[in-house]
Write the structure tokens for this entry.
Amino acid sequence: MYDVLIIGAGVVGGMIARELSGFRLSVAVLEKENDVARGATGANSGIVHAGFDAKTGTLKAKLNVLGCAMMEKVAAELGVRYEKCGSMVVAFGDEQDKTVRELCDRGIANGVPELSILTGDEARKIEPALSGNITSVLLAPTAGIICPYSLAIAAVGCAMDNGAELFLNTEVTGVEKTSGGYVITSKDGRKFESRFVVNCAGLYSDKVAEFAGKCDFSVRPRSGEYMLCDKDAGELVSHTVFKVPTKMGKGILVSPTAHGNLILGPTSTDIDDKEDKSTTAAGLELIAKGVSESVDNVPLRSVITSFTGLRAVGSTGDFIINESEGFVNCAGIESPGLTSAPAIAVYVRNLLIGAGMDPDRKEDWNPGRKIYKADPKKYGRIICRCETVSEGEIISAIHTNPGATDIDGIKKRTRSGMGRCQGGFCQPFVAEILARELGVSLLEITKSGSGSELLMGKTKEAGI
Ligand SMILES: Cc1cc2nc3c(=O)[nH]c(=O)nc-3n(C[C@H](O)[C@H](O)[C@H](O)COP(=O)(O)OP(=O)(O)OC[C@H]3O[C@@H](n4cnc5c(N)ncnc54)[C@H](O)[C@@H]3O)c2cc1C
């Protein structure tokens, strides 16, 4: 019997697990995929929003501002790249100048510090690539950039190092109330008992809440397509440059990433299929047009990949975080959910305490992670030339909690395969290292879990 079971190992489930691992509690995380951070956390803008977007008084506004203030410390503790680069919302003409002033007023009401409005010329002095057509800018120096999946991986790793368990390939298909708590059933028939349950299942949090009979909301997917430029374009802008928001979101941005690339996007399209992560020619054209309006000379020739993330848009317009009979929903956690995650974790911990969880703090809690050290010689062999990743780093990623087991897992932990050649050179070497370190056949190595095996068989064995 666990004290708390968390369903979903995205950044929200991960940060909650980390928070609870600071107490004398038995905690486990159940994740349907074969790795953490495979949902929205794995594909988003990676912006730590200052907090002026959300309507004053909402949970989104409150947890955004708190999360933004917490992020620098959390990232440092977890060894995750974070940079307080500041953000700009750029306006074109009178109508949008007015929106920028409204956003500034809303930010001040939400408690965002250091906001100011610049003229277009003032803004171009700090950010020379901004379009000459920009008439005013909302500057938010407290905004930042972070690697979203690194944050989730590190948070889960910290929780595991402090005693939490992680069950991958564990899709929750049933939640039953008992006198002492809940029995959770997974698709393959395993049962997990727990006093408290926290539902952080992202796009499927409505389904999981329904299993428990605690669903009065729905969650639908809104796709966001991106283009990512090589590092040679990473210094085009030093701030995150947003357009004025619309009812579909914060609009198309141009931003440096925490790893020195330049990210362009996202689009914003309501779709029906919760698994549709395709990119479209129309979406990429829209991004190209959108970014060239706010920033001059965006080097589209430097685009090295494109991808899509799916927002989990809740039916209430706000984050849906509530507790009933020891069952906590964390649903509709769309943007700024990444920013808010550290604050959501504290909020959920307090909800659980309100529901009767009575934990003692651990004196010896480590807010960071234990990083596995490979044989020093292995750090001298470079496997990924684009990102200069060594064999030692790859071995470390396999043996540090939560360990990578496939090509994408290595990619997200070490950046091997993230560069200009997108793994064309290093992937076979990474596969060999994975097979060797995990003690499995090369034929079992996958790109991203079962069904994405890299190899079908040995050519000579097949008689080819
Ligand atoms: C395009 C886009 C741009 C964004 N930009 C930003 C940004 O710049 N800044 C910001 O702050 N936020 C941003 N966000 C929002 C942010 O990414 C999310 O709020 C955050 O990642 C949500 O984390 P999560 O853990 O709730 O969900 P997820 O990361 O989706 O995790 C949910 C997990 O639950 C698992 N799961 C689902 N069903 C089950 C089940 N039945 N059993 C077991 N496991 C299950 C999934 O596999 C998944 O791993 C953006 C989102 C998108 C899509």
Residues 376-444 form a domain with the Arc Repressor Mutant, subunit A fold (CATH 1.10.10). The chain has a mean pLDDT of 96. The first strand starts at residue 2 and ends at 7. Residues 59-78 form the longest helix (20 residues).
